[in-house]
From TrEMBL:
Species whose genome carries this gene: Halomonas beimenensis
Pfam families: DUF188
Similarity annotation: Belongs to the UPF0178 family.
Protein name: UPF0178 protein BEI_2644
Length: 149
């Protein structure tokens, strides 16, 4: 049985609720990893793992524990790349699949945008989490769980 890992530091509350319901419904072991306490309901299938407050401590913990066939929910592109390299599936909290065919280009674009911001360019941030994002994520998660559990 694959495990579901969640990079909980930046996971929207709505996505967190979708994940908890899906984990309960499908009896999928799910771990929310963060450097702070993540409020979660009592559950046999869902747990929180709090790590130290160091830079990338949650990411490092996920990379250490994730196994081939597991699913990681994250929007952190370097973390996604590391998980893909370990044989895991990755999707964002908007339901976008990240994989070997698209992750390197996404990381390069992220690095480029970081360079632009460092030079003083205002590039804007991510758009807000919409009802469409919620629906796309819920559908993508359901499809992955139906196929892999």
């Amino acid at each position: 049985m694959p495990n579901l890992w969640v990079d909980a530091d930046a996971c929207p509350r709505i996505a967190r609720e979708i994940i908890v319901r899906a984990a309960e419904r499908t009896a999928t072991p799910t771990t929310f990893v963060a450097n702070h306490q993540v409020p979660l309901p009592a559950s046999k299938w869902v747990k929180a793992l709090s790590v130290s407050h160091g830079f990338d401590a949650a990411d490092d913990e996920i990379v250490e524990r994730i196994q081939p066939g597991d699913l990681l929910v994250t929007s952190d592109l370097p973390l996604a790349l590391a998980a893909i390299e370990r044989g895991a599936s990755v999707m964002t909290s908007r339901g976008e699949a990240l994989n070997e065919s698209n992750i390197r280009a996404r990381v390069q674009m992220r690095d480029f945008m970081d360079t632009m911001r460092a030079s003083g360019e205002h590039t804007g941030g991510p758009k807000g989490y919409s009802d469409v994002d919620r629906r796309e994520f819920a559908n993508a998660l359901d499809r992955w769980l139906a196929k892999n559990t």
